[in-house]
Amino acid sequence: NAGVTQTPKFQVLKTGQSMTLQCAQDMNHNSMYWYRQDPGMGLRLIYYSASEGTTDKGEVPNGYNVSRLNKREFSLRLESAAPSQTSVYFCASSEGTGIEDGYTFGSGTRLTVV
Amino acid sequence: LAKTTQPISMDSYEGQEVNITCSHNNIATNDYITWYQQFPSQGPRFIIQGYKTKVTNEVASLFIPADRKSSTLSLPRVSLSDTAVYYCLVGDVNSGYSTLTFGKGTMLLVSP
Q: Between vectors from CA A91 to CA A86 and to CA A93, what angle results, nearest 5°?
């Protein structure tokens, strides 16, 4: 059982380039999330999808877009990367709200924008 | 939204019991208390959750006093592999999906 799979694991982008971070879960969870983690900042929610077909902004959505492609997949797109987006990105999923049943996280994508 | 406060770091030695306390003075009636563990280069992992009194599982125990304004995560007989960041979260099951906020957590360093 793979859980939550994120690709790629590492990426280096030049300022202004675009890319999509992929996330897939095989637990039939309804909800999916994208977080970023910066040194000394904890994890901050970028976007989430409560169910297939819906997406909502989190704490730090500027500069990002998301697509809930189907129940399994939730992608995060950077249209024009900036150095401030250098971070580790985590995808997570939960069966319900995640408060009672917990989040399952992927292993992360380490992104560097130069 | 209940804010949490926990120590930035703690040190321990192998075999000791470690207690990490989290303050959440403005916790609401519907809020649950959840703890996550994060190892370096990995995503956080759910370890325990409670509403009141005491909860125990194979990994840890969670103690919540009657006023629920704080909670204590207890790790029995820690080993080197328990070195990680521990996050305390408070969330309301009725307030939607964005209410789980991960603060900076507590960095636990276990030494031989």
A: 160
